[in-house]
What we know:
- The chain is mostly beta strands.
- Helices cover 11% and strands 34% of the residues.
- The strands form five sheets. It has a six-stranded mixed sheet with strand order 2-7-8-9-10-4, with helices on one face.
- Strand 13 and strand 14 form a beta hairpin.
- The longest helix has 16 residues, at 75-90.
- Pfam families: DUF1618 (PF07762).
Amino acid sequence: MVWPASRCVLLDPGVPDYVFSIDQTKQGWASIDLKKKRYQGCGRYGPLLAESVKLYARLAEEHPALSRLAVCADKNIIRDIVAEELKKKQAFKVADLPIRAIEFGNVDEISGVTARVEVADKNLMVLSLSFVFTSSKLKHYLLYDAIHASMSMIPIPNWKPRFPKETPASFCHHVKFTSSSHAFRADLTKGVLCCRIKDLMDSFFVHFDFIELPPGCKSDALDDSDTGPAEMFRTMGCGTGDLIKFVSISFDDSVPEDDIR
């Protein structure tokens, strides 16, 4: 049975290994339909790494917020890659993939892949993903498009951010989302950092712009031990067209003074 990922509502960003960390006897787990798998810039083993990945979902119909997502990697594919790379190492040849110092016989005994949901909306999920048998520095973005039931995998670029001088010294990444061709990271008490998605993929230095919250919306009363996390009172995301939605419930300093009654 196959579930569309667009029906998932995820509160837990952690994505466990389906084989090692999930009780598969529980009802509701099913594979997510992937009609197309693409890879870009993943090196020689890119097609195999992308092909090895499979996503699973467990939808909680009555309580959607309890839905779960899991991932696994095909051990046969991983075993073949590791065996080939170890042969190169023994022959003192240049490796195509940085293999961790693990015994080949233990490949079946370790979790093949770990992941975390970075961005999710109705039709798109972006996961950061690592293959356990490779170097910890080698990570990937996995993009799932629910409309086309397609998955794309690219290595996470090693870029360096350049922030404008007006960026606050302390900036919390409460919310992350995309809108049009830009990516946003919002501090719900101060403002938003944004950059072009294209720059994240093909630039070494990524320039960010800082957008302050509307007048009167900055707040130092949130995110402390008395009030709790800012996400309890505020949220932000993409709206219709190029609009960005900023929602704040009435709570002392959490809304503009003019709006307090």
